[in-house]
Design brief:
Blueprint lengths: L2 H10 L2 H22 L7 H24 E4 L2 E4 L10 H39 L8 E4 L3 E2 L7 H15 L6 E2 L2 H4 L9 H8 L3 E10 L2 E10 L4 E11 L3 H15 L6 H8 L6 H14 L4 H17 L4 H13 L8 H18 L4 H13 L4 H14 L4 H14 L3 H14 L4 H13 L3 H14 L4 H13 L3 H14 L3 H13 L1
Parallel strand pairs: 3-5, 3-6, 4-6
Antiparallel strand pairs: 1-2, 6-7, 7-8
Amino acid sequence: MKIDNFFAELKRRNVYKVAIAYAVVGWLLIQVATQVFPFFEIPNWGIRLIVLLIAVGFPIALVIAWAFELTPEGIKRAEDVDLVTPPRSRNRAWISLVVVAAVFSIGLFFVGRYTGQRSSALSGRASSPVAPGKSIAVLPFENLSDEKSNAYFAEGVQDEILTRLAKVADLKVISRTSTQKYKSAPENLRAIAQELGVANILEGSVQKASDQVRVNVQLINATNDAHLWADTYDRKVTDLFAVESEIAKTIADTLQAKLSGSERTAIAKEPTADSEAYELYLKGNYFWNKRTGTDFRKAIDYFNQAIAKDPNYARAYVGLANSYLLLPNYGAAAPQDSIPPARAAVKKALELDNTLGEAYATSAKIHSEHDFELEDGITEYERAIQLSPNNATAHHWFGTGPLMALARFDRAIAESKRSVELDPLSLVNNADFGWVYFNARRYDEAIVQFRKTIEIDSHFYLAHYYLGEALQLKGQLTEAIAEYRTAVELNDDPLVQCNIEIGHDMD
């Protein structure tokens, strides 16, 4: 068959018409499915199936059009039908039908695009940025024990799960500081998740009686209130590490986080085989988290007791080192008295376990701030963050420590920003983030960050003091003096009073 005869035969057998009509109707079906399926919450694979069926059906429709013809007497084989040119009116009707379907299809396409763009724009204006799917906050665990003094134990289980999750680089894990203000099983999970910048929340409770422990946990997607996973564990205290490891691993698997071999090992590690040492460590951690000079002293006592029970308990040495390290900040000791025991404790911790990111962070702070070995501090902070990527304190100390001291401001800002992402309600992290901007002479950004900190807590003295400094250097002396006065009312600091006098002299 000659090529001219072939194309003439295609036309005579209405193959062209079928192809055009099929394409228009197929496109129309796709547009209808795209607009209607989401309304009925039909999954996206339903739309993909429609597209696939239409694509597969196209060559089949052409073959049928070539081989068969629809006649008043029914469907017949094409070679058995005397195909004459149809009446003009029938041609016009066919063309009109195709045009109407095409116009309707194109209309649906543009309506869908317009409404989709408009709703996206509206949602973008109305809501905060979408939290990453692999993000989680662990809320305080409820203490269901008959003895309310066991609150330290429930808090310790929460901390242990957090510590293990913090080692997973593929997760965003909110620090304990930002979650402590929330009670267990709160009413509005979605609002909490938005404030913390996460998609998922873990709730739990702990009940301890003698050497038996019951742990209840449930993982919830806060964006749609979907319960992703829940379980109850009845174990002896001696088996608690295995429970905490299993919970952390299940969370990572449920959120589809990728785990490296070293991360799996870190999650499964048992810090001590002595249950009494573990309980003493939890008590030490409980008082350390209270952040007062008196409580640091109590923490030191409990950490020392834990070490006496298990001299190889590396994390107890880290707790001891951190307690000594922060004593001077709370007026409870002079640096020359507290830094040497802090240095000795963290050195021992790293000798026992060189995979503890928390230990490297503590060692880095001592090297950079007390020994003025800034490059060594940077190396150890990098190691700390590699081992525990979600350690907000490590990011915070790194950004405001050696990086800022060496005027490496871009990196200092990045580390400080990350510390706020991981601990969004931490007042000191937020204020110090602004302080890094201030030292980089990015005063406008510093002022914005100080005001954000004050929004979290208007009684935080340091943020008002920092804000006063930034406003003063911007030449806004009246506003600066007002911030200094607020700072003095909150904390009678003679340095701030001095700045007020200087401001008055400059005004």
